[in-house]
Amino acid sequence: MVTASAPDVIATTQSPGTDSTSPQALVTLSIVTWNSAECIEACLRSVLNQSYAQFELWVVDNASADDTCAIVAALAETDNRIRLHQLDQNTGFCGGHNYTLNRTSTEAVLLVNPDTELAPDYLERALAALRKEEDLGVVCGLLLQSREDDARIDSAGMLALPDGRFALRLHGVRQSQAGKLTSQYVDGADGALPLYRRQFIDDLRVEGEFFDPRFFAHKEDWDIAWRGQLLGWRTLFEPACRAIHPRQFQPDNLRVRLRMSRKVRANAVRNQWIMLIKNTPKTKVWQLLTRALPRQLAILGYLLVAERSSLSAVRYVWQHRKAILASRHIIQSRARAAWAPARLAQ
Fold first, then answer.
1. Other Cβ atoms within 10 Å of 238 Cβ, number
2. For the residues 25-53, what does the mean pLDDT come to?
């Protein structure tokens, strides 16, 4: 469980560290911020403007050094659905959202990236879709990169690849080139704006946590998608749910990657390896190894030649191998569905 050594600053009369779910709220919206002053106000206003109003909004701030908390606190004074929790250290995307998930009990939780802006009916449409099927664990919408008429698509859910990675469906494709988009099952939801059923959250917990705290940030949505498949949950892409998300993190783009901090680059590498170790079914080990090994060896070669600071990922995985293998045992012992990634990326 994520804890803060300093008291939380909460923009309501709730007591910190307790389950503060409003009896009227049926949905929790969780936003994790870190130096998000540039975008957080637009995000919050789009949230507060949702046609479905029975929600509570948790903003967990990871020790921002800018005006993020001041902006959130000012809006909280105008709307009592906002609860601001300030942590005294950066717990990452995973730790921040775990903080909310461990302290709420609403029927569903919508994760909201601070750099997203939701259409007014996003939550209403996503909830309607989620409530149609009991074995539906996640609903994700159509994320667009801009407001232009023929905007490029950021994501339309995720597709599992046979080497243990996940790809954003239709990423970078113009809407006019994507054809008619319809509701369909996909292999996972991008972490920017997924709606999770509470039973899905609780079913996927490993040692009490939904998100693996070791991930900190990056590829945690891949991990959730994979675990969800193993436990037999389905993810629905609903194109009627729309939002803007100008994606910032693109570790496969070398120019973008070189602008990232050393820690972020190392995390992107180590999280891939942790995920492969934890989630690959025993019956698929050799099949996945033949597909994943060439890429992973190429990554290791790149680190040796051009990014030696990220070799800390190797050291981390080795030092924590017993705990990672323990997580693998828990996940695989509970798996109740086959893992069958697509053969080709779309």
1. 23
2. 96
Structure tokens at 154: 């950021």
Residue-wise pLDDT for 93-148, tens only, equals 999 999 999 999 999 999 999 999 999 999 999 999 999 999 999 999 999 999 99
Domain parsing of the chain, residue ranges:
27-244, 254-334
The three state secondary structure string of the chain is CCCCCCCCCCCCCCCCCCCCCCCCCCEEEEEEECCCCCCHHHHHHHHHCCCCCCEEEEEEEECCCCCHHHHHHHHHCCCCCEEEEEECCCCHHHHHHHHHHCCCCCCEEEECCCCCEECCCHHHHHHHHHCCCCCEEEEEEEEECCCCCCCEEEECCEEECCCCCEEECCCCCEHHHCCCCCCEEECECCCCCCEEEHHHHHHHCECCECCCHHHCCCCHHHHHHHHHHHCCCEEEEEEEEEEECCCCCCCCCHHHHHCCCHHHHHHHHHHHHHHHHHHCCHHHHHHHHHHHHHHHHHHHHHHHHHCHHHHHHHHHHHHCHHHHHHHHHHHHHHCCCCCCCCCCCC
CATH code, 27-244: 3.90.550.10
Average pLDDT over residues 19-38: 81
